[in-house]
Design brief:
single chain, about 325 residues, alpha+beta, Aminopeptidase, 2 domains, disordered C terminus
């Protein structure tokens, strides 16, 4: 028997254990990460149990009449124990839909987890989305190096690496968060008129809580930070969460040298190196210069998909009847 329960803060340890062992667990789904910005969102996360044992998690929040999975996270969706099958996923979706109807929720915005973050194949949720008439409402392009068959680095990037080395730029892991954040904030403001998602205080707190998964790497010359990359390490993926270079750093191709350093470093410990998305305007605009730069390091495309599901009676939209034998 499968049941759905509202997540409570006193279940934090159980939640984190399920996430740590799941087929598709991720740093972002650890409550220590999620809860740092709990004051910004009305949490509406769920736990699914089978015969009293945790089966799956669903991070979420509600805003207005919409359930999101989750507005504070890059992606979300069901976090699945190894016991989750296609039939169990359909059962959980039926429970979720009924629960949200009772809460007067009218739609779901569901951010699916890209396959590169799966420890083992885990796309049962995509089939359940299809069964519930989901509509693709956003698709972003992220650029990823698969170390098993990496693409060829361009001559332009090779020249950049040589230029950085010749200029005497050094590369290393660092704790100089304030110095890099100054470069990052200045770059984002000048180029896009925006601020980083995380403040300096927040990223320091997260790095302190997750020192083995959140790291800062910098390119320096004469002790001055010219460029930096913040990586989030999860399972097989090393993801570049923040990337920035100062004007001086761009002049000496500091990022080319730093990425050369990082790509080599992570080739020994991870299956993928992910540069992050290159989209604007809800996915409709592709920043061609940015994506080309990433592809020239040998990366290719993985997509981040977001779906919308209308929360209505299954009998009203032609979908098959719910799986029997379920309980709230």
């Amino acid at each position: 028997m499968i049941e759905i329960l509202d997540y409570r803060p006193d279940q934090k340890e159980v939640w984190n254990r399920v996430n740590a062992d799941a087929k598709n667990g991720h740093l972002l789904f650890d409550r220590g990460f999620m809860d740092y910005h709990a004051d910004r969102f009305s949490d509406c996360s769920f736990m699914f149990l089978e015969d009293g044992k945790p089966l799956a998690l669903l991070p979420g929040n509600v805003s207005g009449n919409t359930f999101f999975s989750h507005q504070g996270l890059t992606f979300g969706g069901f976090i699945c124990d190894q016991r989750v099958t296609s039939m169990r996923m359909l059962a959980m979706w039926d429970l979720l839909m009924e629960e949200l109807r009772q809460q007067s929720v009218e739609r779901i915005v569901y951010k699916s987890l890209p396959f590169i973050y799966h420890r083992s194949p885990c796309q049962e949720d995509l089939y359940a989305l299809f069964r519930h008439g989901a509509r693709l409402i956003r698709r972003d392009v992220t650029t990823t190096i698969d170390y098993r068959c990496a693409g060829t680095r361009s001559k332009r990037r090779d020249r950049g690496v040589k230029k950085a080395v010749k200029a005497g730029v050094a590369f290393a892991q660092s704790t100089a968060w304030a110095d890099f954040w100054s470069v990052l904030v200045g770059t984002l403001q000048a180029r896009h008129g925006v601020k980083p998602t995380h403040s300096l205080e927040e990223i320091r707190l997260l790095a302190k809580c997750f020192p083995e998964q959140i790291r800062l790497y910098i390119a320096t010359r004469d002790g001055k930070v010219l460029a930096g990359v913040v990586t989030f390490e999860t399972g097989a993926v090393a993801h570049a969460q923040y990337i920035a270079a100062s004007p001086e750093g761009r002049d000496v191709a500091a990022l080319d040298g730093l990425f050369d350093f990082l790509i080599e470093r992570y080739s020994h410990t991870h299956g993928y190196f992910d540069f992050g998305i290159s989209n604007e305007n809800g996915g409709w605009v592709l920043n061609e210069g940015l994506v080309t730069q990433k592809e020239e390091y040998g990366g290719s495309t993985v997509v981040h998909d977001v779906y919308e599901v209308v929360v209505t009676d299954v009998s009203s939209n032609g979908n098959p009847p719910p799986i029997s034998g379920l309980q709230k």
